[in-house]
Design a protein that fits this description.
Length: about 325
C-alpha cells in the first residue's frame, strides 16, 4: 500500500542524493543543508513514534536539525551548474521534440486526478493500493515518478539526467524551497495560538454577522490579505476558517464546507500572486529568468489575480449557500 510515509522517504532519498552530489563537488554548505533536511524527512516517522513512546531525545535532535537549517540557510548562494549541452543544442532539441515536451508535464495533473478519483477502488490481493488518507498527495508523488520516466523516454535521455536537472533547480532555488512547508506550519501555529479566535471576536464586534454576503466578502478578502502577509494560502486558511468560515458561514449561514474550502483556497492563491513573501513563486522565478526587477513576476500577475478573485467570489456567492 502506498502511503504518505513512502512519499517522504522518496523526498528524503532525493535530498540525500543532492547533498552527496554537492559534497562531491565541494559545495559544503549546500551539501550540509540538503543532507540535514533529507535526514529530517526520512526520520520523521521514527521521531513521532519515539515521541509517542515517551522518548524526548529524537524530538530534541529533530529540533536541533531545524536550527542547523536556519543557520545554514544564509550561506546558500546561487551558483551555476555546468551544462551538459550548449544553449543552441538545447534549443535544437526543443524544436525537434516539439509538443512532445508537454507529455510529461500533462501526466502529472492527469495521474494525480485519476488517483484522487479512483485510487480508493484499486486493490490487489484484497489490499488497497493507496491509503485513503492523503491520497491526493501520494497520487502526486506517483505522478512525478511516472513523469520522470516519461520525460526520459520522450527526450531519449538517461534517468540520471532528470535527477541532475532536479538538483540544479533545487540548488538555484535554495532555502526558498522550504517556504511552503514553513508557511503552512505557521498557519497551524497561528491557529493554536488563538489568532483565529481573536479574528472571530473582532469580526463579531464590527461585522454585520446576520448578512451572509458581508461574512463571505470578509472571508474572501481575509484569505487574500493573510496570504499576502504570510506568503501562502495554506497558512492563511486555518486562521480564516477558524475565525470566519466555520463559526459564521458554515454554522450560522449553512454554507457548503467543501465549496467554501476549495474556493476560499483559490481566493488565497490570488494573494499568492501579489506578494513577495511567496518567494519561491514570485522572487525565485524572477532571479532564474534574470528579470530587471525582482518584482517583475508580481507585476505581470497583478491584474490576473484581481480578475480571478472577482470571478471566484461571484462563483462562491452563487454556489456556497445552495
Amino acid at each position: 500500500m502506498l502511503r504518505i510515509e513512502h512519499v517522504y522517504w522518496l523526498i528524503a532519498a532525493f535530498l540525500l542524493y543532492c547533498g552527496l552530489r554537492d559534497l562531491r563537488e565541494r559545495r559544503a554548505w549546500h551539501a550540509a543543508f540538503w543532507l540535514v533536511l533529507g535526514v529530517l524527512f526520512g526520520g520523521g516517522d521514527y521521531v513521532l513514534a519515539q515521541q509517542a513512546a515517551g522518548h524526548a531525545l529524537p524530538s530534541q535532535l529533530a529540533g536541533a536539525g531545524v536550527i542547523v537549517l536556519a543557520l545554514l540557510a544564509p550561506r546558500l548562494h546561487r551558483h551555476a551548474h555546468a551544462e551538459d549541452n550548449s544553449a543552441a543544442q538545447r534549443l535544437q532539441s526543443a524544436i525537434r521534440l516539439g509538443h512532445k515536451l508537454l507529455v510529461p508535464a500533462l501526466l502529472i495533473p492527469l495521474v494525480t486526478l485519476l488517483v484522487a478519483l479512483f485510487g480508493g477502488y484499486l486493490a490487489f490481493a484484497g489490499r488497497h493500493l493507496f491509503a485513503s488518507a492523503q491520497m491526493t498527495l501520494t497520487g502526486l508523488a506517483l505522478a512525478c515518478v511516472i513523469a520522470l520516466f516519461a520525460a526520459a523516454r520522450v527526450a531519449r535521455a538517461p534517468l540520471g539526467s532528470g535527477l541532475a536537472e532536479g538538483r540544479r533547480l533545487l540548488d538555484a532555488i535554495g532555502w526558498a524551497a522550504l517556504l511552503p512547508l514553513l508557511l503552512a506550519a505557521l498557519g497551524e501555529v497561528f491557529t493554536q495560538s488563538g489568532v483565529g479566535a481573536a479574528i472571530a471576536a473582532l469580526a463579531t464586534s464590527w461585522l454585520p454577522t446576520g448578512s451572509a454576503l458581508a461574512c463571505l466578502i470578509t472571508f474572501a478578502l481575509g484569505m487574500v490579505l493573510f496570504t499576502v502577509i504570510m506568503g501562502n494560502a495554506f497558512a492563511a486558511f486555518p486562521v480564516m476558517m477558524a475565525g470566519i468560515g466555520l463559526p459564521l458561514l458554515i454554522r450560522q449561514h449553512g454554507a457548503d464546507p467543501a465549496i467554501l474550502g476549495s474556493m476560499g483556497m483559490l481566493c488565497g492563491y490570488c494573494g499568492t500572486l501579489l506578494t513577495p513573501m511567496a518567494a519561491d513563486y514570485n522572487l525565485v522565478p524572477a532571479a532564474l529568468l534574470e528579470l530587471r526587477s525582482p518584482y517583475g513576476v508580481i507585476r505581470a500577475q497583478l491584474w490576473s489575480a484581481w480578475w480571478i478573485l472577482l470571478a471566484t467570489f461571484m462563483m462562491m456567492w452563487l454556489l456556497v449557500f445552495h
